[in-house]
Amino acid sequence: MTTHPDDSSVPARLFDLIQAPLRWQLVAVGLEFALFDRLATPATAADLAADLALDAGRLGFVLDALAAMELLVKADGRYRLADEASPYLRTDGPRSLRDLLTTLPRLRHGDVAALLRGETADAPLDMTAPEFWDRSAFSLRSFHRGMGAAAMMAVLESLPEWPSARRFLDVGAGSETLSLTVAERRPDMTATVVDLPPMASRIAGRLDTAGAAGRRVAVIAGDFNDTEWGGGYDVIWASLTLYYARDLVALLAKARRALAPGGVFVSLHEGLTAERTQPETHVVGRLAAALRGQGRSFDRGAIAAALSAAGFARVDSRDVATAFGPFRLDCGRG
Ligand SMILES: C[S@@+](CC[C@H](N)C(=O)[O-])C[C@H]1O[C@@H](n2cnc3c(N)ncnc32)[C@H](O)[C@@H]1O
C-alpha cells in the first residue's frame, strides 16, 4: 500500500510519511461512514452517496483512494470490499478489527509536540469508569480475534509440551478468545484466565454464551500479583501483561510453583534493543504512552533474566514475527 515499496531511501521514506496520515484517515472514514459494511455488495459512488447524503463526486475520490490502497476493488465504476480485507473490516467479520481500529489510535496517536512540552493534551484515563473497561474489552477482543490469537496459537502449538498439555492458564488474558480457541481446538484441555475484576466479569459474560467449549474455560477475577491461581498447569501463558507485575521475579516464581511437573511458562513481550530504539513498531507505537508517563516496554533479555532469577532451570528465547510487530518469546522450564 506504500508508494514505493522497493525504495527504502530516506527521501522515499519521508515522502511516504506525507501520505501515511491520509491512509489512516481513509480507513477511519471508511469505518465512520460504514463504507466497508455497505460495500460488502458492489455499489457505485452515486448509489452510496445517495444513501449517505454525501456529494457523489467527493465520495468517488475517497472510494478511489481506498481502492488504491487495495482495501476496495473498483470494476466498471462499482466498488466492493476486497475479499482479503473483508473479514477484518466488516463489523460482522469473524476477525473484525473494527473495535481495535476505533480505540487503539486514541491511545497511540497524540499531539506529540504538546506531550513533549509536558502539556497534558488529553484527559487522563479513568480506570474507575465502566466505559474504560468496556472500550478495553472490545479493543482487546477485536485484537485477539483479528490477529492476536492466531499468532499466539501458532506459538502454543509449536511447544513440545503442547500435544500432551491438559491444563492451560492465561495470566492477564484481556479476553476469552485465546482460551476459548484452546478449548475449541482441544476438547481434552481446560483453560483458566486471570484478569482484574472489571475485565474478568466481561470475559465471564462472553463465556456464558460460548457453548460447550466456554464451559471448559474458568475465570479468576483478581490482581495476578495477589490472587491465588491454583496449580497443576501444563502451560502458563503471559503476553503483553508482565508490565503490571509488582515484583517480576516474585510473579514468575509464583508461576513456576503453579506449573505441573514438566510444565512450561511462556512469555510473549517486546524486547527492546539498540538502547531502546528498536524494534520501531514498539518504540514509535508506544511513544505517546511513554510521553504520558506510561512507558512500560521490556528490554530484550529482561524477562529471560527474571525467569532464571525466579528459579527456572532452563530458559529458551526466540524472536517471533507477528502482524503486530516483532516479539520475544521466553520460555521457562524446570
Ligand atoms: C495489554 S493487555 C494484554 C492482554 C493479552 N494478554 C494480550 O496479549 O493481548 C493487559 C491485560 O492485563 C490485565 N492486567 C493488568 N494488570 C493486571 C493485574 N495486576 N492482575 C491481573 N490482570 C491484569 C489487563 O486488565 C489486561 O487485560
TrEMBL record:
A molecular function GO annotation: methyltransferase activity
Start and end residues of each Methyltransferase type domain: 169-265
Any Pfam family matching the protein: Methyltransf_12
InterPro entries, per the entry: COMT-like, Methyltransf_12, SAM-dependent_MTases_sf, WH-like_DNA-bd_sf, WH_DNA-bd_sf
Keyword annotations: Methyltransferase, Plasmid, S-adenosyl-L-methionine, Transferase
One GO-annotated biological process of the protein: methylation
SUPFAM superfamilies per UniProt: S-adenosyl-L-methionine-dependent methyltransferases, Winged helix' DNA-binding domain
Coiled-coil residue windows: none
Protein name in UniProt: Methyltransferase
